[in-house]
Amino acid sequence: MPMIDFEAVKAAISLSQVLSMLGRLPRLYRKTQFKGFCPLGCDGHLSCSFNIAKNVWHCHRCKKGGNQLDLYMFVRRMSIHQAALDICNRAGIEPPLLTNPPPACLREPKESEWLNSEGIGEA
Is the pTM of the predicted complex or chain greater than 0.90? Predict the structure, then answer.
């Protein structure tokens, strides 16, 4: 499996692009701040903040948050590797690969390990 450069993906794809891919339309709160429903479906209130300038989001109800890759990963219930591939595919760009992959001790966890750690996978 190729090692994807996640930092390059985050630099190429903005949070607003990911929100559009997910069909989420938060309401403008301030210049670069938006409020909206939690994309994870934790409640029916505008408890989620999206900072378009910093490419970060946070739900004040369920306490989840992160960057645009994290958002896509959580909503689509997939690994970060698969989320990066999917986002690049939908944006029509080639997934950027690492030229110097990290050593095995720094490897990305297997998808099943990640899903289980997030309470998403099979018990």
Answer: no
- The predicted pLDDT at position 42 comes to 80
Element (H, E) at 117: helix 111-117
Describe the crossing of helices 80-91 and 68-76 by its angle, rounded to 10 degrees.
Answer: 100
For 6-117, which CATH class? alpha beta
Tokens encoding 117: 């750690």
φ, ψ of residue 13 in degrees (nearest 5): -120, 125
For 36-81, give the secondary structure using H, E and C: ECCCCCCCCCCCEEEECCCCEEEECCCCCEEEHHHHHHHHHCCCHH
> From residue 34, how far is each of 29, 30, 64, 115 by CA, in Å?
5, 7, 16, 29
